[in-house]
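Sat 14:20. Reprocessing the chain from the morning session after the first attempt stalled halfway. Input below, unchanged.
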Amino acid sequence: MSKNYLLIPFFFALIIIGLGLSGIGSVVPEMTKQFGVTSAVMGRVFLFHGLGYFISIMIAGFLGDIMQKSFLLRLGLLISALGFVGISSFHGFTQVILSFMAMGIGLGFVDCMVNPILTEIFTKNPGAILNIVHAFYGLGSLSAPRLYAFLSQRQYNWQNFYSVVMVVTIVVFILFLFPFLPKTEGKMGFRNILTIFRYRAFWFMGAITMFYSGGVTILNGWLVSYFKEKGLSITVGAVYLSFFWLGLMIGRFVLSWMVDRIGHLRMIQLNTIGGILFVVLTLSLPISANLTPTLLFLTGFMLSTIIPTTLAYALVNYPETASTASGWVLTNNGIATLFFPWFGGILASFTSFRTTLLMVPI
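Finished this time. Tokens:
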């Protein structure tokens, strides 16, 4: 009997991660206006949510090889829901920032546990499975700016956006309470887990993830602000940003069949070259209602498989420490999420948002 129906809850889990993380870039301009702070101060949103994500990824990676992964996944969804409750209800800047940190902690647990659990359920073609599931991160990220624009046009504010995400998270948490997840517990000793760091390829995977995620989080975090700086409305800028996530989502669907055929490392190389090319064109050519969304779409398409393919490479080559391997890849994602957009906000306050976005191809 086919197990493909078991993918459905994981699809929704990745949609939540996409909505939660990618929604920040769309709501930041309105938050900046509401709280009356500079872009450098608003960069703390990225800093604190990135700090929460970073901490949880480090912890979850090790814990997943010691205890039950399904418990950690459900715990992550519960913490995420509490974070979204705080974001959507608090009115003080400090309380909201701390709620973003809680969101980061919860989503970090979810992100780290989804990958090894999936490879336990679906042992064949892990690269294809992870790319397909991670395509729904692209769907969530694509939906975030469009959902925000939809609500904004109807006089709802940025907190209402996170109220919607909160409701979706609670529904997904209930789905994962059903007994379909593997109940195997990790049995690796702590010292045995640490031996994986002796391998040079392990550090290489971390570097790939860090610089990829650094570029993507800067693009997602400050692109709408860049378009606003150039005279576009926030709503139009958010719609333009959604084309990047549309390309990323479609790219993961379209290219997933190639990943296990041409090789994980070759796929990463091709995607990186294409991503650099199209993001340079996006920032170099004049803003156009037709050209700019097209270039953003192609940027997302070319960058689409890097994270899930790197995860597949890690999980296939280090199956005995799958959670640690997943956690290591995503820890570097957390480092990038923590520092790159925060630094981008500081840089923009002294120069311009275009200067910040030039960090992406670099």
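Residues 200-229 form the longest helix (30 residues).
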